[in-house]
Amino acid sequence: MRAYPAVKRDRPALPGRVPDFLGDMRFRRLLSAEAWAGLPEAVRRRFAKRLRGGESAVYCGRIAETRLSWAGRWLARLLTVIGGPLPVDDDNEGTLAIVTVTEAADNAGQYWTRQYNRAGRFPQVIHSAKAFAGPTGLEECVGGGIGMTLRLRTAADRLLFVSDRYFCTLFGRRVYLPRFLEPGRLTVGHEDLGGGRFAFTLDLVHPLLGALVHQRIVFRDMTEA
């Protein structure tokens, strides 16, 4: 996946093309059979949706709430130099949000684009790229050579993406940040609400500064609708 620097894979790469009737097995393989089976059927269906290279899935919703601490606000503003991967506004309740998931041309990962509308201003657009690679089997880059390895978890019928290690790429080499320099643990959740609706949650919690960012957006699965 070209959005990523070349890295040594710590486990065999998952095949890019499998028969369509099997769906997309890449997320499923990162969980135990028991954990995957315990998720609601709608969640399993969304994360097993097969997209061919270059195809996209689009989800529309409304921002339910965004909370930024003083430290979270400064961090979000600081990170705009690499594309702004965190929400920068906490006065956007009820505004439109759009997420587009596009399969990479080589089927090695996905590009995610989140658009948050802002009254009277240009929308905030967040780009990231997920690759099924690295020591945890999943990692995400947000720009400027900055990324993180992710672990997939389940909790109370929710699918969770939990940050494991942060890294940056310098002169073609990956360098993991010391723990004390990390911005905190990032947890992104996917919770099915029934009727084709689901909630996206984002929480960034620092071990000393506490909760920096919290966001909840309710989306509608247009396919189910």
Supply the number of structural domains.
Answer: 1
Distance between the termini: 32 Å
Quaternary: single chain
How would you write the strand order of the largest sheet? 1-2-3-4-5-6-7-9-10-11
Order of helices and strands: HHEHEEEEEEEEEE
Low-confidence region ranges: 1-21
Instruction: Indicate the CATH topology.
Output: Lipocalin
Would you mind describing this structure in some detail?
There is one protein chain. This protein has 225 residues and is mainly beta. The chain has three helices and eleven strands. The protein starts with 32 loop residues before the first helix and ends in a 5-residue tail after the last strand. Residues 1-21 have low confidence and may be disordered.
Key descriptive features of the protein:
disordered N terminus; 225 residues; Lipocalin; mainly beta
Annotate the secondary structure layout:
Blueprint: H1 33-37, H2 41-46, E1 56-68, H3 70-78, E2 96-103, E3 109-118, E4 121-131, E5 139-143, E6 146-155, E7 158-170, E8 173-176, E9 185-194, E10 197-206, E11 210-220
Summary of the model, kept short:
With about 220 residues, this protein is mostly beta strands. About 10% of the residues lie in helices and about 45% in strands.
